[in-house]
Write a structure and sequence with these properties.
The protein is an all-alpha fold and 177 residues long. It has 6 helices and no strands.
Length: 177
């Protein structure tokens, strides 16, 4: 049931990201809510959910944007792996609201740098005509940072509600109250 809730939330967040990109365009970028959900799950030591959300969310985003297939998926999986390693293997940090800004903004900056590097690599190898250009990458990164800064705490609140619902369901499943 836990993963069903994650998948439902994932589809809502992907749709919300696409809607905001269309309705409130800031240089054509919007917060990537599904990536925030994946990063928050990784920081909370839920590696299976984090990888699933990163993979499925990235795949959906790859297919619904003009980016080369695999660009968001691979970048999100790398970002989730780094977040999981930092929060659960390298330090003894317990993820809470204080770590939302560095995690959200760091993940957003990484995904944009990844998109630029991945697009450049595909263009250099003549595998895809996707060449974003450095100026456009800077504009998109600035817009993504702004959108992420505005929406990171609402996304954190939504994921906290999701985690509480999952905890309630797991408690009921075990026979508790």
């Amino acid at each position: 049931m836990k993963y069903v809730l994650y998948i439902i939330t994932l589809f809502i967040l992907v749709g919300l990201s696409q809607l905001l990109a269309l309705e409130l365009p800031v240089f054509g970028a919007a917060a990537i809510f599904w990536l925030l959900l994946a990063l928050f799950a990784a920081a909370r030591n839920d590696s299976t959910a984090a990888v699933a959300v990163a993979f499925i969310g990235g795949l959906i985003y790859d297919l619904t944007t003009s980016a080369p297939v695999g660009s968001y998926t691979i970048g999100a999986l790398i970002a989730v792996s780094v977040a999981y390693t930092i929060f659960n293997r390298m330090t003894t940090l317990r993820f809470d609201w204080k770590y939302v800004p560095p995690l959200a903004l760091g993940g957003s900056i990484f995904i944009m740098l990844w998109m630029f590097g991945y697009g450049w690599l595909l263009e250099t190898l003549r595998l895809s005509p996707f060449d974003q250009g450095f100026t456009q990458m800077l504009l998109d990164t600035g817009a993504l940072i702004l959108a992420t800064a505005i929406f990171m705490y609402p996304a954190y609140w939504l994921t906290t509600v999701l985690w509480k619902a999952i905890a309630r369901l797991e408690t009921r499943k075990k026979g508790g109250t």
